[in-house]
Amino acid sequence: MKRLIPATCPESFLNLADMGVSEAMAILEQWLQAAGRVITKDQRDVMVRNYRTCQVPLYLRVLYREALTWPSTMPGADIRLGGAVKNVITVFIGRLERDHGESLVRRGLGYITAARCGLTEAELEDLLSLDDMVMSDVMAHCKPALRRLPTLLWARLRKELDEYLVETMTDDCVTLMWSHMTFREAAEDRYMKSKDKAPSYHKALAEYFADMWTDKPKPYQGNEIGSKRYTLGQPLYRIPESGATDGDTTRVYNIRRLNELPYHFIHSQQMSLLKKECLCNFEFLLAKISGIGLRAAYDDFRMALTAEPADLDLKLLSDTLHLSISALIKDPRQLASQIIGRMHDIITKDVPTAPGDPVRYPALKEFFEQAKNGSIPALIPSITCLTPPSGVLFDQLSGHTEPITAVCMSMDGQKCLTSSKDDTLKTWELRSGRVIKTIHGVGADVRQIGIGGNYAIAITSETAKVRLWSLRSGECLKVIDEYEDPATIVMAADGMLLVAFYQGINVMRVWAMGGKFALTQEVFLSDDQIEDTGVHQENSIVVGTNAYGALVLHANRNSSEAYVMNVKKGRVVLTLTAKKSGCITAMACTPEYFILALKSQYMETHELYTLALFDNRSGKFIRDVRGCVEDDVTQLLVNHIGSHAVAICASEANNASNIAIWNIETEEHKHVGKHAKVSHLGACVDLRYCLTASNDDSTLKIWNLTSMVNQPGTKGKIKDGLEDIILMTGNSRYVIAKSMNNGPIAVWNIAKGRCAGKAVHIERGLVNSTDVMLVRNTTILVLTDKGFSSATDNSPAVYQTLLIYDLLKKKYIQKLNNCYITPALPHEYVFLSDEQLMGLSDTHNHLVVWSTSTGRVVHRMKANFRDIEKRTRDAETSEADQRRRKRATTAKMSPWDRRAESESARARRHHEEILIEKQRMDDLHHEKDNIIEQFKISSDLSTVITSHYAHHLCVFDVQSQSHVQTLENHSSMLFLYTSAMTVNGSHLVHTNYDEEAKLSYLTLWDAREGYVRKRLRNEKNVTCVDISNDASRIVFGKSTKELRIWEPLAHGRSMRRIKGYPTLNFGDHSQIHIIDDGRRAVVYAGDISLWDLEDAAVLGVFTPDMRIQCFTPAMGGRLVVFGLQDTSDIVTLRLMSSRHKAIEKTGQDLFGESVSSDEDDEEMEAQLELE
């Protein structure tokens, strides 16, 4: 209690004097009177004599319970009582063993003592019935019909235990536990201290909770066949009769087994069974995380690793769970995908070095296979695509309810402070991972934290405010809010000076951390001062993360010169000028050096960071320590001895971060601890505890870097990810992956398990960075040699050379010069067939089809509005004219104003409205001349729909090369940003906003007939949509985290909603693909998920660590293929479980990979076909 409540609050504690003998005897008398008992004077004297040796209320109560058993004829000399509570309890237990039988009492109380969270009465009766020592005594005296403990025997014993046991609600059950810790300690001393006794209790408990003897005879001495004991079953979970079996939402988990079984395996020293039945058993671990939580699983792993610290299986699995915390806390069903996505390469490459040698992770081999065939369907990746465990993640601390905003460490590196948007400041003990202090009301906008005043004061910096907090009492000691600019703070002089650099006006102010916190210095940092009455938010000053005594580093942003400020004297004492050009992004001090992190240009498209070292006494330049192109140094951290520098390198583009380490003396540089999310916050004083946190995460990661600093490492290299994945229409087992920046082209066999993680064919160097490369099946079309054609004097730039490469023949099969192909972005070309290429004209006002045989234009698809209008005029009704007349005669007037309007005024108003409507119709007519803004082509390449930033869309038939229909809405601009077409292009669904109704719509068009089939009203924030092949089902996602199913052609209720999961995040890049004839859908919205549209349920979710660059379903939706930004490998996801069947082989092997055996393929291909 004194650790939790500050010592500065003496009123929080009251000293209680010992209860005197007279008071104790008075209380005893009241108890005896209430119980209707009287003791003799001799017996009372014994009680007084014993109570004088231990004047504790609990001891008095125990004496009273013993006195109730004394007959009046018992002389005081025969009474044996100990001088402590434990002694009396020991006497009490001995009497129970004499009265109720030694084996029953010994084993019964031993089981209660050994249990982790107590035992229910039913469990205790089952355990005693399974105990051969107890049952041998029972059968010798009672001879029950069944070999099971008679309930009466336990009931008699339970009555005498009365106050010594207490009923508590544990694991959703009422369990029996010792009512006082002293009672438990006495039972432990009697039953559990002997090394040969305690394991026997834990072993029996482990057998019981492992469900070993349910519905199975247990042998006993003299009977090898054994007999049933009729115990309750202990399954992992049960499913209610009304529940479904597709997921875990209807499962009722057996919390008793999940909590007790690992505990007893560990304490009975059965580590092999612990791994087989619990921690390395997929179904048990899934149930543990789903039913209790990830933290409970961590506790089991920590307990097991304490007992067996060298166990590689448990260490690897524990590290993997740490990395998966974000996904598993929100959705435990992702356990299989997270485990396989991180450990796939580790486990598959774990093979014996020589025949007969053991593998490194034997238990995880079986665990891996169990995960692929789990009871709950999961999207299983084909290769390692998530951050693999590296052994450096020490712990993840969860305590805040909102994202962390700032973090700092104490100077000894053993504690840290974190602030959060939940308005709290927490103090953590890093070794144990527990919160030792929480201060409320610190604000939700804390940008920086400091610790000063001998670790007694926390300093928080907000946008225009600095506050000082007592870490003992939690009260605010001082508020500095008279300055309106944001401050960057640093602690100097061993935490006794608070230094604040005010951004924008370039002023440094210093306060003493003692007394009244007086302002001691105010220094202007530049000659051209800005009035301090203004608010200037830009980061104009770079400040060192720590101080060397009273010396603090600061520099102007984008400068290569830094200054050493003596904050006690308020003047610059040294100027540090970097030898290399660049701009300073971060600085730090060590006992020997001042370190500047400089960013400079490298190879035109990259940036390189260099650490410049200066002597911290003379300011003389020492040397540069080079980094790599993967660095991103915004905050430079150093350990307390100054041997290493650390930076948290975050990548916004990849949604990932890692930790960069420099050895200051050897100049070795490496990256470790790659993890998901963009970690902007970091702190490190001791390499054992390097802290990282993200602005959108409420957990704090702790990394132990000591094991990595001396291991050889490699510097980061820029890796090109995938730009696009193209399905091969002629053979569904193949996909073609295009790397970013026109990198290599790779062919992947996604159906052949043997080829997982390895492309079957790669082509490099086919194109330059300025060329356009298009892929169709095994043909690659390259547009190159961009220049000006000689056809006319004013010809625009064109691609003059067309190359065709055959992936099967591995050579160019065609080269055309003197082509005339208009340059455009790669996505604005469509490879229609082996002989035709479609794209936009140079003016973007029509579509052009080029021949790949001649390189010349063969068709131009232009809008022909006159023919369309003439062809449809006879079929039109008077609806449009009625709408126009309504527009020209409807005024925004009240009925009484209209009645009072004169004939001449009405005529003038009608004339003005007609003119306005005429002008509007003219504007709509002029929109017909707009250029093509975007176009979409149907999957069968038969229909093209173009948008023109106008109130109409144009429909073209590719085969006839003609404009066949116009989709028009006079009150709504029509776009294709959020839209989808049927496979044959017969229908289009898209979002639009009606300017007259002021409502958002989801509109279904019949593209061939040119009219609206159905509209869904008031559908805002739709980010993605898809339509089934027959247009009977439309699925769309909204920013409200739900998926909606619209059946526009159905009668009755046509709209259904599916509630999303917590991490579902529909955005601009989200995609929906309807598969399986409209019965299922694959969704990419931050995560990849598979949905059952018929049952309105989520079948599986996969949460990636890094940002997905490209994504598409394959093989009719039975696989999902995606690519990441930092690797050129593709990843396939398969819905796998014990209930999903294998798929028949489709297509033929084209690239020579058929040399692998069919057995290997069958083993890896099993799980593709959905039931």
UniProtKB/TrEMBL annotation:
Q: Could you tell me which residues the WD repeats occupy?
A: 397-438
Q: Where are the compositionally biased (Basic and acidic residues) regions? A: 869-882, 895-908
UniProt domain NWD1/2-like winged helix-turn-helix: residue ranges = 85-196
Q: What segment(s) does the record annotate as region Disordered?
A: 869-908, 1152-1171
What keywords does the record list, in alphabetical order?
A: Repeat, WD repeat
PROSITE patterns, per this entry? WD_REPEATS_1 (PS00678), WD_REPEATS_2 (PS50082), WD_REPEATS_REGION (PS50294)
Q: Where is the sequence biased in composition, kind Acidic residues?
A: 1156-1171
SMART domains according to UniProt: WD40 (SM00320)
Concerning PANTHER family, the annotation shows: BETA TRANSDUCIN-RELATED PROTEIN, SI:CH211-212K18.6
Which protein is depicted?
NWD1/2-like winged helix-turn-helix domain-containing protein
